[in-house]
Structures are given as C-alpha cells and as structure tokens.
Request: fold
Amino acid sequence: MGEGDGREWRDRQRQAVLAHAAADARRREAEHAEAAKIVAWFVAEATRRGLRPTRLVARSYDGRGWYRTGLSGWYVDQARSRAVDVDGRFHLLTVPGGLRARLFGAQTEPSPAPLIVGEGGRDGESIPLRTLLARRLDAGSGG
Reply:
C-alpha cells in the first residue's frame, strides 16, 4: 500500500465519520422538535383542564436536599425529577446544591425533552414522552 492509498483511505474514513455525525445531528434535531410539540401540547392541555402549576423544587445530585428553583410548572414523574414549566420547557430537576443554592435558590436550565424518557438508563425503565405526559394529565391535580 502506497502513501497515497493510506491518505485516500483516511480521507474516506474522515468523510464517513463526518457524514455519520451530520446524520445523527439531523436525527436528534428532528426528535427534539417532535418532543417540543408534545410538551407544548401538554402545557395547552394542562391549562385547558385547569391543572394548576406548582412551584418546582430541585433535588441535589446526592439526593439529600431540596432547593427552590423559581419555576412554576408540573412534575411529570413520581420521583419529581422531571418537570415541564408553564412556558413549555422540559427540566431535569437535579442540581449540585450547596449553600448558595440553599440561600438563593437553584438554577436549572431547560433540557431538550427526549421522545423516550429514561432511555438508556441503568434501571431499564423507559416510557414514551407522550405516554408519560398523558398519564400526568389523567392524574389531574393530585398527580
């Protein structure tokens, strides 16, 4: 194999990797757009049904403390680790915690909602986002 053959092979490999990464990014963007529509549907339906939003709190990474977030919305799982705020943004409610968060509240950034919640998790339990949110709506204000 000559030096030119090796360079051509590396170039083809690099192009294949770039094409794969671009296709994966397009797939993720499409999934996030679909999930955003589902979350928007949930907020509209929760509002229509009169489900009152609640003040959301976040749990520390170590699970020992709860922290105010300044957000209002609906918890969507029993563990209260995921929520949708009134503006239609999906949040994972785990934070580093600490004294500053205890005094001033914790900051959480919205996350792109997954189409399958819990996919790839260690417990093996996953659920489609639409099913999870429909269950939350069906639970009503007590959910």
Q: What stands out?
A: The mean pLDDT is 89. The first strand starts at residue 54 and ends at 60.
